[in-house]
Amino acid sequence: MQERVLKTLEFDKIKAQLSEHVYSSLGRDKAEQLVPSTNYEEVVQWQAETDEAAKVYRMRGSIPLDGIHDIRAHVRRSSIGGMLSPLELVHIASTVHVSRQMKRFMEEFHAEEAVPILYTLTSSIVVLNEVEEQIKMAIDEQGVVLDSASDTLRTLRNQLRRNESRVREKLESMIRSSNAQKMLSDSIITIRNDRFVIPVKQEYRGNYGGIVHDQSASGQTLFIEPQVVVTLNNELQAIRVKEQQEIDRILLQLTGIVAQFEEELLHIVSILTELDFMFAKAKYAHRLKATKPTINNEGRIALLKAKHPLIPQDVVVANDVALGETYTSIVITGPNTGGKTVTLKTVGLCTLMAQAGLQIPALDGSEMAVFKAVYADIGDEQSIEQSLSTFSSHMVNIVKILEEVDQSSLVLFDELGAGTDPQEGAALAISILDEVNSRGARVIATTHYPELKAYGYNRKEVINASVEFDVETLSPTYRLLIGVPGRSNAFEISKRLGLNKSVIDVARSHVSAETNKIENMISSLEESRRQAEKNQEEANDYLKQAEMLHKDLQKQVMEYYEKKDSLQEKAKLEAKQIVENAKKEAEEVISELRKMQLEKHAEVKEHELIDARKRLEDATPQIAIKKDKLPSKTNHAFQSGDEVKVLTFDQKGQLLERVSDKEWQVQIGIMKMKVKEKDLEFIKAPKVVVETKPLATIKGKDYHVSLELDLRGERFENALARVEKYIDDSLLAGYPRVSIIHGKGTGALRTGVQEYLKNHRSVKKIRFGDAGEGGSGVTVVEFK
User: Fold this and answer.
1) Rounded to whole angstroms, how far apart are CA atoms 502 and 494?
2) Residue 360 φ/ψ, nearest 5 degrees
3) N or C: which end of the chain has fewer CB within 10 A?
4) Does 315 score more than 80 pLDDT?
């Protein structure tokens, strides 16, 4: 990518915003060095990495990356025999700690949600517990070597504290003496050159003897180490030297441990840098409400509600832009009222962001191409240093573009041909666009020349566009209108600003009839487009409602068949039990008859046989078999509107229309289905309705009734009100059964709902849900 293009499209500002989301200087350096890739496989890989990081950030919210430091120089110095400072060792321990935390964090996350790239990356981290523990045992977070670092250091510091206490006691007795107030400038003990001293007035220096270490700026006060504490201070200094030697020994020992793991530590830094950068991209995507685009290598761009990433999200206008499918060039025409350049930069920046592995500020489902080069000629290109006019500077850029552009390029022209005679500028613009199109490049160009309005109509690979302008507010709406060329708003603006109507009429007379015809055509196109967009939104709403209804119907049919299978299975088990009971009873009767025969030598009386036969008859299972009613044999000729009984479902319905010689479409409740004529029984013909003025029926968004009502989290009074309305809606919709989800909780809501349902005149029965339906947290309602 050319550095000039990155600067023109303000990609440096994108990197600056990205840098705000890093955890360390390592991530910041990587963000500042970010350059879009022109390699398709690399772009796809980068986008996959960002998508995984965005997934983790979206589900967890915080990432354990705080505490990373650039320790590469420290590690290399340790390997060549240098001694690391306590703070440098603390930074190493902190970085090792973060690597360990991230490894465990990604292992736990990957077990729940697959993130193969991040998991593979963190799996290569070597856990260096020894390095971390050794450093933390010896040095605290502020870089102070602890007494516990070694037994020798603890002993030396205990000696230091005892000796310092003795010195202070000596000096405190001196400053509390009766003459101290007269001879001392201040009754304090201070330190000069690491030795304890007291401030003595110049004229009394001989009273204390000892060593003068410093004096005040005026020379009136001398900081003297009295002779009585010189020996003690010497002992202190000797201990301090030993202390420093022990500290240096400890630091060298820890540095040696670091040196042993040079390769592992450098690898950890490399992995953490990549993780820092990936999660910075994820956090930046969250800030922009960005999504992962589908990447292609065929020059297709399909941006859905794309926004310029550098304009505040609460004011920026989203636009759809498609390029490379049915047309390869977009020419945005119209006056210089704003919005055209924003569109150019939005497409250019989204392209650069996608090729840099960043998610783009557009809706999910957007598509971006990987271009080998992006060329942009945008803004005021006047060059004072080279004594070039705006037009000349533009042409210098365009000449360079034409030397390099090919079929894998994206070219952005702002105000093509501007800065010179309008007629010649328009001719040059058309010629340049033809040349770039002939190379197969993708092009978006803006111009205010009216001659280019016809350009898109005369070339099949080119489409016109414009930025909508609101004459009422005298400002652009920044909405891009694809397929509609821009039109002049000069007369409307002048009229709104108060210019005399007669002046405007005279001006109109100077405009050719053909131009007026074109402007009227464009105005009509804009109106048609607005109406089409409105109709499309309404159609989408109806489609969503239809999809919801279809989904509920599918669910209801599945529940029907599941219930049917369950009832059949239950009936089989009951029948089997009845037969087994009958067999058992019969065997008992036969056994008793045999016993009677043996005991009475075949002299069984008649009434005993009658009783035995009756017991056998009673043991026979009595099953009432419900015979299906046969279709009516009347000679009635079915017609649309007839009320019929569908015998296969034992349900009433209404005939809608004949679909074949032997089949009708029947409305049963909210369902429509095809039924064979032989399975229909005529009930009655439709009533003849006297035609009256129809009443308007309003079906809003709540027209669709769900098969379930979820009351969880509702207050008791609100819940009962919702249940009452829901039961009425369900009855109107013709549902045979619905479910009310109230949860288990304390049981108050469940009891209240069930009491209401028991007293409802249209409720046949209620029951708790089965195990697969939600158990006691759900009440299933069946209607009469």
Assistant:
1) 12
2) -110, 150
3) C
4) yes
